[in-house]
Amino acid sequence: MPTIGIQQLVQGGTVAAQYYCADSENGDHIDDPSEDALFMLITDLNDGDNTFVVIPDEGNPAWFASVAVLDEGGYEIVRRDTTRREHDVTIESSSDRIAGLTTWLATRAT
């Protein structure tokens, strides 16, 4: 499966391609997740013991995305990029509608 390379902007300079990882509450960890792998992590979320996925889940990144299961059903998607002054929170009723997240992640490379 192909992976998405991400370059992160760091204080006035660009670092060579930095790949990201995804971690879920139940301990699943995927380095350099493909779109299919992210979809699987998200569809495995439940309202019991596995309620969220964070990308990337390390330190204090300049950007991150998270997907969380809502008590009333559906998902809350948070996208934040401090270098671009972006902060977006959306609610989706189906995991199929979260596909736009991978597009957002891919744009972190520019």
Structural notes for this entry:
This protein is 15% helix and 33% strand. It is of the alpha+beta class and 110 residues long. Strand 1 and strand 2 (13-14) form a beta hairpin. The chain starts with 8 loop residues before the first strand and ends with a helix.
Contiguous runs where pLDDT drops below 50 for at least 5 residues: 1-17
- Oligomer category: single chain
Count every beta strand, where a strand is a DSSP E run of 2 or more residues. 8
Strand order of the largest sheet: 4-3-5-6-7-8
Number of helices: 2
The termini sit apart by 22 Å
**Over the alpha carbons, how many angstroms does the gyration radius reach?**
14 Å
Structural class: alpha+beta
Shape summary: globular
Strand content: 25-35%
Mean pLDDT: 77
Relative helix content: 10-25%
Largest β sheet strand count, sense and barrel closure: 6 strands, antiparallel
Q: Helix-strand pattern, N to C?
A: EEEEHEEEEH
